Description:
Elements (H helix, E strand, L loop, with lengths): L1 H27 L7 H19 L2 H25 L4 H24 L17 H19 L1 H11 L1 H6 L4 H27 L11 H13 L23 H17 L18 H14 L23 H18 L1 H6 L10 E4 L4 H14 L2 E6 L2 E3 L30
Parallel strand pairs: 1-2
Antiparallel strand pairs: 2-3
Amino acid sequence: MTRQLLESTLRVTTPLIFAALGGMFSERSGVINIALEGMMLIGAFGAAVTTYVTHSPWLGLGGGMAAGALLAAVYALFVIWLRANQIVAGTAINMLALGLTPFLCKILYDVTGQTPAIPLAERFQSAPLYLSWVVVGLCWLWLKYTRGGLWVSFAGEHPEALDAAGIRVNCVRWAAVLMSGALAGMGGASLSVFLSSSFSRNMTAGRGFMALAALMTYKCAVVDVPFGGAKGGVKLSAHEYSERELERITRRFTFELFKKNFIGPGLDVQAPDFATGPREMAWIADEYRTLYPSDLNAIACVTGKPVTQGGIAGRVEATGRGIQYALREFFRHSEDVRKAGLDGGLQGKRLIVQGFGNVGYHAAKFLQQEDGVRVRQAAPEHVQDEACCEHRHGGALGREGCQGTFSRPNTCRR
């Protein structure tokens, strides 16, 4: 049973491995490939059609790679040559692939659902599974020990140095994006000629986005540990400085990070924490763009930006909302609840929140308002009533029994 589960897991992850490798090449060169999903989809179609015509899965694999690279060339044209927004261009490519594949099916086979079935003898049995791990090793060796791999890394991290050496940065980025498309096409081919017997409409089902998420998870890790991170900041009493002074301090902090190569979309993405928010992130992003005007992904050097400057609506409360959903899921399983020495559901439970920062505030707010949880705040010398939660953004706390201000954690006193 365990062996079968392991074999099945390795098989279904094969397309993701190819797609994530493709995204890695593109990202290393300074271009975030949001269009992996579309390239996988067109690659799956190209591989199924080529295999059906030639009766060879290897030629089908080549057809899938060619189809993915062709779509990648369209993406590169817009984001590298025309300097279009990568998110918008990538989304457009994904939508193009989603509509183009059934249209081509209709032209070739007079159906929009899928291509004709490929006989079992003409499909891959296990070759893509082994090939994916071979490609992983080859990519690692190429990036680490070859001149071309060094060029790709410098195109993303230090394009000025690459340009000073007489190497055209855009040419390197073009090559990386085309390689990204070819590898994503291999992932699509694994779906239609290895895991399935034909191409079907939208058969990737979000696998391109899964590969991109996996890539971003490991890219932002410390010492190769997923979900790793780092903390840094400036210690000061923010209320003692004017907004203009805080902006100058934040920009100087960004400059120091830049000098030490501690900031960048492919290096370390800054995020708001204690006493900071969208305003500070906007200052950092603007300063980084000034210091690094050639970086296509400069706006991605921070998260938590204002929505008007490339931020994402809902990002501020997302982590707090995640805590709420996790607790809801926990209390759905009565056996786990009993093991924790609890009973019943969330309603009426008392929740101790360490601090009313961004995460603590939103988690407490949603749990109190939507699940009937009684919220208290814990500090070294006291426990506060949940009434304070309602006034976090209200300046002076007007609720009876609460004094102080919630602009800084642990200043609300009972």
